[in-house]
Amino acid sequence: QDSTETKVIDQIHAFQTGITQPIEWRIAQLNRLIDLLNEQEDAIVDALQQDLRKPKFETLMTEVIVAKNEATYAINNVHAWSKPTYPSKTFPQLMDTVYIQKQPLGVVLLIGAWNYPIQLLFNQLVAVIVSGNCGIIKPSELSPVTADLIAKLIPQYLDKECFKVYLGGIPETTLLLQQKFDKIIYTGSSMVGKIIMKAAAEHLTPVLLELGGKSPVYVHKDSNLDLGITVAKRVAWGKYMNLGQTCTAPDYVLCHGHVLEEFLNKLKSTIKEMYGEDPQKSPDLARIVNARNFQRIEKLILGMSKEKLVVGGDMNEKTRYIAPTVYKDVHIGDPIMDSEIFGPILPVLAVNGEDEAIEIINGSDKPLAFYIFAKSDKVVQKLLSNTSSGGATVNDVLMHAAAYNLPFGGVGNSGMGAYHGKYSFDALTHERSISYRGQNLESLVAARYPPYTEKNLSM
Ligand code: NAD
């Protein structure tokens, strides 16, 4: 415990030297992060193969390239973001200079997730660097090869005094949480999010919580399933990427009865088209991260009636393979609708329109994402106005979360705070109000001093 404490104090000292203040230093560190992603691409692909059997294409598209884009966007904008801003003045401020100083918070603790262990941690590291903070980085122990790689590479590329990686699981994280940080960013389950927030409260440390939830899809009756956009393909892509272990993955589908049969048929043919006759042989499907998660998902499949199975259902505990699976005739109250699936099972519920979909969505916790497939803008606007979620994408999936010009975060049970792009800078920056006046013009304020009189108040 002592050594952990000493190390965090090291980062506090590094921050207090002012080393992170110059914008050029931040840009240099961000460039080093890009160097790491370029030079170590093969090692990253290999680590994610070992941890999740993540296909190389997915590692490059959803981890490496996303993090590089985030870093590049931060480099291009850090000068503008870090400039003080000058609000319009009120009457008593006419003789003053009033502005908002953009000040880093200090030392930020990052507690990482295992499902996108490079993208999520590196995007958050970009946030720490661009805003001029120091960072303590705790990768997830559930993707251990990637965690070891991060621990090896970060000191090779980034300033050793300002950024430190700690490895470990619950006991080590619990120890770290006893320290005082200036902000904690946590990515993971809502249940652990509560533990993090309680620990942070001891030090009045603010938290940014990136959590999960059951993200719904609504397919309206006017959706053209055949021509134009391929609804089933888009849903399947977002669902089965990383074998369903994506925080913003479609969790379940609310499908209008008029297009239900066609949607289910299309899902079936799409899965075959994407992953072949036997998806177990496809190189494009990841694996479930560990035995505990495998057993959790297995239990959900075993709890479902075979008559409701549209496609999939195969499992292999040894290789932690679970087939892309779809169930029909699912109802609210079925165990599969109790909590986030976080695996490759897609329950489809029939609804009679957007009103029923709204009722179902509002009947449970606010999700991280919401996906709407509809041609009618009136229907889209009604769904957006009457529901709440961290973010939403219309006529596609995941896209709002992949954009660095949009805030990424949850609401209610799916999280608090947001990051990406400018929102990352703001999340780790203190906006310090400055009212700056000269040492003259005493007569202008003389009326405020005691002894008070009614006459003074009217001035
Ligand atoms: P988790 O919440 O169990 O664990 C994540 C991290 O928390 C690990 O680093 C672990 O060491 C630490 N941890 C676990 N238990 C702890 C404890 N008792 N005390 C202190 N630290 C502890 O992760 P999980 O449940 O496997 O993650 C899946 C969830 O994360 C899903 O709900 C998913 O939607 C969500 N998620 C959200 C995002 C997002 O960006 N919003 C991204 C990825 C995953």
UniProtKB/TrEMBL annotation:
<keyword id="KW-0560">Oxidoreductase</keyword>
<dbReference type="InterPro" id="IPR016161">
    <property type="entry name" value="Ald_DH/histidinol_DH"/>
</dbReference>
<dbReference type="InterPro" id="IPR016162">
    <property type="entry name" value="Ald_DH_N"/>
</dbReference>
<protein>
    <recommendedName>
        <fullName>Aldehyde dehydrogenase</fullName>
    </recommendedName>
</protein>
<dbReference type="InterPro" id="IPR029510">
    <property type="entry name" value="Ald_DH_CS_GLU"/>
</dbReference>
<dbReference type="GO" id="GO:0006081">
    <property type="term" value="P:aldehyde metabolic process"/>
</dbReference>
<feature type="active site">
    <location>
        <position position="247"/>
    </location>
</feature>
<dbReference type="InterPro" id="IPR016163">
    <property type="entry name" value="Ald_DH_C"/>
</dbReference>
<dbReference type="GO" id="GO:0004029">
    <property type="term" value="F:aldehyde dehydrogenase (NAD+) activity"/>
</dbReference>
<feature type="domain" description="Aldehyde dehydrogenase">
    <location>
        <begin position="20"/>
        <end position="433"/>
    </location>
</feature>
<dbReference type="GO" id="GO:0005737">
    <property type="term" value="C:cytoplasm"/>
</dbReference>
<comment type="similarity">
    <text>Belongs to the aldehyde dehydrogenase family.</text>
</comment>
<dbReference type="InterPro" id="IPR012394">
    <property type="entry name" value="Aldehyde_DH_NAD(P)"/>
</dbReference>
<keyword id="KW-0520">NAD</keyword>
<dbReference type="Pfam" id="PF00171">
    <property type="entry name" value="Aldedh"/>
</dbReference>
<feature type="active site">
    <location>
        <position position="210"/>
    </location>
</feature>
<dbReference type="InterPro" id="IPR015590">
    <property type="entry name" value="Aldehyde_DH_dom"/>
</dbReference>
